[in-house]
Structure to design on (526 residues):
């Protein structure tokens, strides 16, 4: 197996484009920022961008394509959101219709792509600080929960914040806050520490998305705003057509995670 | 004279609305965030919001009104951008036509207001750290310069970054970087320190906007991205109608500056 971690983003994207990589992208092109993708028609683009602007913790915008263009000019000028994600999800009127390997046949001239920051970026930063990530250890998807924290409405878009949870050893919680605070553009500091009930989470073993992970003695559940929020919110609107990445199958940009650190 | 510094934002806005305050707002409602204002028609709103998103240092968006509404629901739910600024500028096709005390007669149903962060916020933070602000000492407007730093284009909007300059004593430069880095939502860290030529500024005594200030021995000119940038860029497009605040006559929000600190 090739060492995808040490490859450049453009090399990985080329392999994805040639359908030689078809699975999840976690751990590939180390230190480069991976993003969620939401594609909507132009009629919804202003409201959706405004929703993201109003909810920067859950919807940190990394790049937006010009209407009709599938090139993320800032994040990956040689990339193409029609082909460079291993697996896409096609939603019509809010229903998941199919998963596909590219969207060349579906692209239309009034589409706008939103690249939204993802937790991979701050997980690297945590690991660089010696804080291990349980769902990586357990080789599963991060547990995610719908909360009672409302997002700030924008036009037709509204809905609750979705959070991801990582168990953090008690003595590392302060450091985890510091490390992730440096990255406000990729979810930033936690939204809740140690009291899931206060944000409407009653059963830590039943995440709404992803999988459960072990919480060991002496560990505190820490919750971060999650990039699934904008997808969940956009789906509630039941747009005629919405295209996203499939979970874990992210868009790999040319931007380095460290670029998003403010300190 | 009343002590405007200790009044609440809503009280100041009420006095402005009644035309009892007609001058600059610097120093009023201490610790509350003041903003630049740009009003455009909806047809330009997506491109302009995208421009701001792509240029967060010069165009930090604090709030955007829903199309047709003049209420900044997040920044000041009891405020009104038709009346709560002491002096507005009306531009038609890129030309300054007049300055007015309210825009009730000009408001239209397809207008969108953009409240954009202003340097008052980080100046308070600098002063709280014992770093004096020269243009406040000299009781004049901050000197601002067009640079050779290009903004990132979005749709029809493009143009160079405008920066503001503050002379900082050499021994305080590092602290000034630290303090302003905490506030990425209100311009953040400097863009240049000590080498104006490198960003196309050849004569420190001839600012493009505002007024010159004294640079004393042992002081370094430090440059921050400036909220005049989006106005300058929007004007180049020569929109049929654009309304802004007059320089120094800002919109005072209910948000506290400290809220915008990430650490």
């Amino acid at each position: 197996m090739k060492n995808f971690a040490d490859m450049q983003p453009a090399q990985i994207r080329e392999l994805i484009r040639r359908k030689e990589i078809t699975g999840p992208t976690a751990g590939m092109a180390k230190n480069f920022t991976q993003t969620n993708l939401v594609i909507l028609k132009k009629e919804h683009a202003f409201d959706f961008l405004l929703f993201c602007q109003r909810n920067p913790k859950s919807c940190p915008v990394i790049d937006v394509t010009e209407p009709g263009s599938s090139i993320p000019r800032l994040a990956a000028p040689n990339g193409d959101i029609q082909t460079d994600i291993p697996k896409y999800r096609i939603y019509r009127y809010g229903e998941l219709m199919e998963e596909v390997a590219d969207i060349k046949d579906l692209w239309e001239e009034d589409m706008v792509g939103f690249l939204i920051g993802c937790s991979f970026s701050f997980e690297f930063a945590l690991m660089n600080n010696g804080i291990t990530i349980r769902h990586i250890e357990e080789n599963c998807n991060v547990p995610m929960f719908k909360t009672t924290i409302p997002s700030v409405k924008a036009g037709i878009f509204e809905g609750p914040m979705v959070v991801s949870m990582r168990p953090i050893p008690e003595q590392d919680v302060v450091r985890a806050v510091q490390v992730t605070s440096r990255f406000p553009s990729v979810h930033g500091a936690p939204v809740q520490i140690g009291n899931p009930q206060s944000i409407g989470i009653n059963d830590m073993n039943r995440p709404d998305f992803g999988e459960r992970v072990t919480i060991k003695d002496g560990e505190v559940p820490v919750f971060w705003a999650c990039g699934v929020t904008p997808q969940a919110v956009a789906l509630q609107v039941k747009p005629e057509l919405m295209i996203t990445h499939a979970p874990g199958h992210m868009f790999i940009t040319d931007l380095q995670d460290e670029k998003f650190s403010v300190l």
